[in-house]
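User: I'm preparing a small set of examples for a lab meeting where we compare how different chains pack in three dimensions. I only have the primary sequence for this one, and I'd like the structure in token form so I can line it up with the others. Please keep the answer compact; I'll paste it straight into my notes.
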Amino acid sequence: MRLISLALLICASALAQLGSLSDPYIDRGKIELGFSGNVTIPHSNAGATSGNLQVDGGYYVSRHSLIGGEVGISGSSGAQTYALAGHYRYLFHTHNPKLFLFLGGSPGLGIAHLSSGNPLVGPQRSVTNTRFTFRGEAGLKYFVARNVSVEAAYNLHYVLNTNLGSLPGTSASASALVFGLAFTF
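Assistant: Understood. Below is the structure token output for the 185-residue chain.
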């Protein structure tokens, strides 16, 4: 009887530890602050390659769900874009407590300014417009320290022009490989 009780106690202890292996890294109530950057290559014009820097923050509403917001700035020759978006990310726990796979989405608004001389607007004028944006992401997060993780993701960006006064009806998509650093508190 004692042997069975001891075996059950050991099994229960092992199962309890298995269920909480990743809790120190990601758990309900934790806050995350992240920084990322990428190079974007548009599907329609590879010559219009641009760079992007982004800051995001979020709150873990569960062990699997991060909800937050992000601010980004992009630039290329003759153009700048500023973005503000909401963000949702679902994290998949793995057998390695430091490694997480994720899927996410970010709807938002982008404000683009095209300078004079940009081939889209011509040499004599500049244009600023507001656009609806959506970004889907799939990637992985790896904790290199208790509160520090590195991330790599594939992003698919979709942009719909909502300012009918300039470049009416245009939309575009682009792929990006994104690398980031995040701090979890």
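A couple of notes for your slides: The longest strand covers residues 127-145. Residues 6 and 148 are 38 Å apart (CA to CA).

User: Perfect, thanks.
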